[in-house]
Amino acid sequence: MIHGLFVTGTDTGVGKSRIVGGLVRRLRAAGVDAVPMKPVQTGAVRDGAGRLVAPDLEEALAAAALDPGESEREELAPYRFEPACSPHLAARLAERPIDLETIAACAARVAARRGAVVVEGAGGVLVPLGPTTTMLDLAATLGLPVVVVARAELGTLNHVLLTADALRRRALDVAGAVLNEAAPADEASRWIRDDNARTLADRGVRILARVPFCLEPAALDAALGNLDVVSLVRRGRRMEP
Questions:
Q1: By residue range, what is the domain housing residue 153?
Q2: Is residue 38 flagged as an active site residue?
Q3: Which of 1, 12, 27, 217 is deepest in the core (most CB within 10 A)?
Q4: Does any domain span residue 240?
Q5: H or E element, residue 176
Q6: Is residue 239 a part of any domain in this protein?
Q7: 3-state secondary structure 32-96
Q8: Computed from CA positions of residues 198, 200, 202, 204, in that sequence, does the dihedral angle turn out positive or negative?
Q9: Which of 159-168, 170-179, 181-190 has the lowest mean pLDDT?
Q10: C-alpha torsion sign, points 221, 224, 226, 228
Q11: Residues 6+ apart with CB under 8 A from 179
């Protein structure tokens, strides 16, 4: 049985990596040997040795105070592309198609060594990975409970509900949504953010956490404090490598 979560966003720039880091940190604090995974990274950067590094993975690893070896990093971020564009375009430019089964095999091997894996998608669920595949296909291949990270402010209702609907149509377990303030929010609009959370809950999307804009890990930990992350990851399904 693989234990873990698939973290998707309603868009790019909603703070997925930050939330992934917080979830991994909470799991590890609870005694679960969890690691983050970024299967497809565009906008990768080169280190001093000329190797492509996945910045989203590195952010989550740093948040959890983890420093795995190079071989495990390869499995945690198997597809890294330098252009900061859609995965399908980056893969086409690199002439390196993204294979879902390759990613699933990496996730299974990591999960076999570790207690849980928190997988971060790229953008939203319908982001193309290839000519016919999307991030939704990857989520379905992995079969993990899905956490949706979304903006807290005006406009999030449509994005979250569409995302949840797409996931459920593929029979995926939507664990809930994290409403994240990726930038400082206007206090005068708090009533809108409050109503967003109520409306989503009324329409069947569990609100796992509401995260205010914060830069310190302790503040993120406090915002995620009431979330039983261990129970969420134990809803995972069996995977074959």
A1: 4-233
A2: yes
A3: 27
A4: no
A5: strand 174-180
A6: no
A7: CCEEEECCEECCCEECCCCCEECHHHHHHHHHCCCCCCHHHHHHHCCEECCCCCCHHHHHHHHCC
A8: negative
A9: 181-190
A10: negative
A11: 150, 151, 152, 156, 193, 196, 197, 200, 207, 209, 210, 211
Task: Indicate the number of domains in the chain.
Answer: 1
Q: How far apart are CA 29 and CA 11, in angstroms?
A: 29
pLDDT at residue 240 in the model = 36
Do β-strands 116-120 and 79-80 pair in parallel, antiparallel, or remain unpaired?
unpaired
Query: SS3 for 126?
Result: coil
SS3 122: coil
Read off the pLDDT of residues 196-223 as tens digits, 9 standing for 90 and up.
999 999 999 999 999 999 878 888 899 9
SS3 content of the chain, % helix, strand, coil (to 5): 40, 20, 40
Burial classification of residue 7, based on how many CB atoms lie within 10 Å of its CB (0-12 exposed, 13-18 middle, 19 or more buried) = buried
How confident is the model over 224-235, as pLDDT tens digits? 988 999 999 887
The pTM score is 0.94
Residue among 3, 16, 26, 38 flagged as catalytic? 38
Distance CA 9, CA 149 (A): 5
User: Does residue 238 form part of some domain?
Assistant: no
The CATH number assigned to the domain holding 172 equals: 3.40.50.300
